[in-house]
Amino acid sequence: MSLQQTLVLIKPDALQRGVAGHIINRLAHAHLRMVGAKVVKVSEKLAREHYKSLSDKPFFEELIKYIRGRLHGEEHSGVLAIVYQGEDVIAKVREIAGATNPEQAHPKSLRGAYGRVTTKGQIENVIHASSDPQEAEREIKLWFSPYELTHVIFPVKSVSRNGKKDWRLK
Ligand code: IDP
Ligand code: MG
């Protein structure tokens, strides 16, 4: 067992369908601690950086549109970003999320229950969850500043005269 953090993104399709509350409820039952949360309008740059390991995939451009909310109407052009902390939280949240493709996900998992594959073949799977500790650290540092979390989870450095802190680079 080890104390970990993970990044969850409740994706635009989940916000459009009004199931963000259900997703948060399910995660709450797993006794995880929420240490940061915010709604983010996802820039092109943030989307590409977040999914950079998939940039050579044929679905990459559609994925960028999807995470930016461009497939779910202007009023749903955001994601809800949450950092959870807990024992083995990375695997726990992945288990609750289910398989990447909602058609292959367990029906009681979040993706099995709320996701779909559109007739065009676009995977809409309602949630992102970091897959390992390295990915979690990279993603949390990408989406959150230290002062947006309830406590210090990675080393920080002072960056400016106003005393604001930023993540210390490895
Ligand atoms: P994960 O989200 O389960 O970790 P990844 O392989 O890291 O899955 O892919 C990231 C995201 O890219 C998926 O959640 C999904 O939105 C999208 N994606 C992955 N594979 C496909 C595909 O074959 N077609 C369309 N979209 C995909
Ligand atoms: Mg992944």
Q: Main attributes?
A:
170 residues; Alpha-Beta Plaits; four-stranded antiparallel β-sheet; binds inosine-5'-diphosphate; binds magnesium ion
Summarize the structure.
This protein is of the alpha+beta class and 170 residues long. The protein has 7 helices and 8 strands, in the order E-H-H-E-H-H-E-H-H-E-E-E-H-E-E. The chain is globular and about 50 Å long.
Overall description:
This protein has 170 residues and is of the alpha+beta class. It has a single domain (3-144), classed as Alpha-Beta Plaits (2-Layer Sandwich), CATH 3.30.70.141. 32% of the residues lie in helices and 22% in strands. It contains 7 helices and 8 strands. Strands 2-3-1-6 form a 4-stranded antiparallel beta sheet, sandwiched between helices. The longest helix is centred in the last third of the chain and has 11 residues, at 133-143. 34% of the residues are buried. The model has no long low-confidence stretch (mean pLDDT 94). The site of inosine-5'-diphosphate (IDP) has 8 residues, from loops.
Topology:
Blueprint: E1 3-10, H1 12-17, H2 20-28, E2 33-40, H3 44-50, H4 60-67, E3 79-87, H5 89-97, H6 110-114, E4 116-117, E5 123-124, E6 127-129, H7 133-143, E7 156-158, E8 165-167
Antiparallel strand pairs: 1-3, 1-6, 2-3, 4-5, 7-8
Bound molecules: inosine-5'-diphosphate and magnesium ion.
Inosine-5'-diphosphate binds next to loops.
